[in-house]
Specification:
Blueprint: E1 4-5, H1 6-10, E2 18-19, E3 45-47, E4 53-55, H2 57-60, H3 66-72, E5 75-76, E6 84-85, H4 89-107, E7 115-120, E8 132-140, E9 143-150, H5 160-163, H6 169-179
Parallel strand pairs: 2-6
Antiparallel strand pairs: 1-5, 3-4, 7-8, 8-9
């Protein structure tokens, strides 16, 4: 069996075939209406000639630090070979956790360790009634601190995000939810 590093697996695309029937998630959360819509968008993705969305991570993230090299050298295992059909949000969550989070978290097993929880309340001092799909956190002393929050949607972003503007009502609602 080949041993991979976290860096090797993070830098490659998932090789498992995906059937995406194109179903859309709608969003209109009452709590999000209290937030103003995002007016100016900086997109780090583009739609290629193949119709696929491609991300430009080099410009979206901060430069790598010395400790990132330590994490990149961690041993990692690729996802099992399988086929995916993204029919429901749960299918999308399963795909994301298997094909993306599992690979990335191999680099964050320590230095510091990142913990993933699913379908839980965000880590905050405020009392929030809603659950989120996933939370990635680190422990700082006796306190957990949020690194990232994930909320799964299906085929929700429209092309106006690529232009840096949000025009349609459904996209404005999404931007309010992202702000919240």
């Amino acid at each position: 069996m080949t041993t991979n590093t976290a860096q090797q697996l993070i830098l490659q695309h998932s090789t498992n075939p995906v059937n995406n029937p194109g179903y859309e998630t709608k969003t209109d959360k009452v709590w999000a209406r209290a937030y103003k819509p995002i007016k100016k968008v900086t997109s780090h993705t583009m739609t290629g000639t193949d119709g696929m969305t491609h991300a430009n991570f080099e410009e979206a993230f901060l430069p790598l630090q010395a400790d990132d090299q330590l994490r990149f050298r961690q041993r990692a295992m690729p996802p099992n070979n399988r086929h995916w059909r993204l029919e429901t949000e749960a299918d999308c969550e399963n795909w994301f956790h298997t094909e993306v989070a599992n690979v990335v978290l191999s680099a964050w097993h320590e230095y510091p360790a990142v913990t993933q929880t699913s379908h839980t309340k965000p880590i905050t001092e405020e009392n929030i009634a809603e659950n989120v799909d996933c939370v990635f956190s680190v422990r700082v002393g006796n306190t957990r601190r949020t690194v990232a929050i994930g909320e799964m949607k299906r085929n929700l972003l429209e092309e106006d995000w690529q232009d840096g503007t949000i025009v349609s009502a459904s996209q404005k609602k999404l931007s309010q939810e992202l702000r919240g």
